[in-house]
Amino acid sequence: MFGALMRDIADRHSAKQRLEHLAHCDTLTSLPNRNALQRRLAAEISRGSCALMLLDLDGFKYVNDTLGHSVGDKLLTAVASRLTEAIGESGFVARLGGDEFAILVSSCSDPLMLDTLANEIFQSFQHPFEASDQSIYVGTSIGIALSPNDASDVEQLLSCADLALYSAKSDGGGSRKFFQRAMQNSSDQRHRMGSQLRTALANNEFELWYQPQVCLATGSLSGVEALLRWRHPDHGLLTPANFIEVLEESPVAEEVGDWIVEQACAVAAKWEQAGLGPIRIGVNLFAAQLRSNRLFGVVSTTLRKHDLPPDRLELEITETTVLRHNNQSTKALRKLNSLGVGIAFDDFGTGFASLSLLQKYPLTRLKIDRGFIAHIDRKVGDSAIVKAIIVMAAGLGLKVIAEGVETAKQEKALRALGCGEAQGYRYGHPMTSNDLLHTYLDRSTHSENTLGLSAG
User: Fold this and answer.
1) Residue 325: what pLDDT?
2) Rounded distance, CA 215 to CA 415, Å?
3) CATH of domain 200-447
4) Segment 316-360, tens digit of pLDDT
């Protein structure tokens, strides 16, 4: 009886130890977890100065989406080992979850020492990680906050480091940022704007404006791009540059995207009934729409509702949005393309993964980024790049359109290179649906829908 009691006590003690271990240890990497970091951080703050570094991996989601989650897990384990080796005795390494890690440096308030440590981390990421017999290159971004300079309690210090990390990611990744008070102000502004955006749709504050797209061979209006505007009750009409980044991360992004599809299809049908002709209309998709399983249903239902032929609608995606895709979105785009809906790759040529994505998606058109058009008549390199894109697109069975065309010389260069269509201020600024209808209906009446290429 006594022996059984002793075994029971021993088993309970062992179980308690296991539970305590699980409560403070990350099961994937065996690093301390968020709970362990918070406990250690509270102790360090109470003793004096310390520094907190938050890291996450640049491009980790792309690894998960292309190589699978099992490879992603092995990559995280490899990253944990390399971070531990790189930091050594200099700090306390923890995994907070996902691809986010933390490093606590005790008794440290020296930015130069932390900068040196950050550079050592960056250096350790220069070599590929081995996972499932594959060599994988990923980078990292780092946000740094100091106690007591920036914050004097655990949650505040974590928040400050997180804002610094967000700033580093916003700069394109691969960098480190120290927390600054201006980041808090920026965060507060984003929060306020996010709240306003959540009510903007309900209050009918969004509008669609339309920019003409022309056929370079004939000068005729071939399509338009629908562009979002926000008629803010206090600040007037706002262009996307003022709010789109916050909207893309907002919970209402998908709902706003659905509204854009609805409005664009309704306008396209209205234009045709008014006699403007079969005009193609381009709509930009948010990442939230690509992540959703509703995309095919929303688009196909809207086309039927307005009796709009599928080939009148063109969905525009960017590298930023497709790198955050899932397999469900690829299937939805393929199904929509099979109906006849066009799929355009916007801002083509500016991203590192553009070429590898061309065959993954059911694309029908490439939109050549305005950065290659601005000096196309003066820079041989830009002209050569555009020519290469046009030839490549033809080989893949894709159409092309050049963005940002403003001058007759740019237009002439594009026509000489064999570019099919163009868009830009040379052919018209974004305008309301009624203004576009009246402008081009009048032109079609007098010149069979031909746009004068000599117009400024």
Assistant:
1) 58
2) 10
3) 3.20.20.450
4) 998 767 665 556 678 888 999 999 999 999 888 665 555 666 777
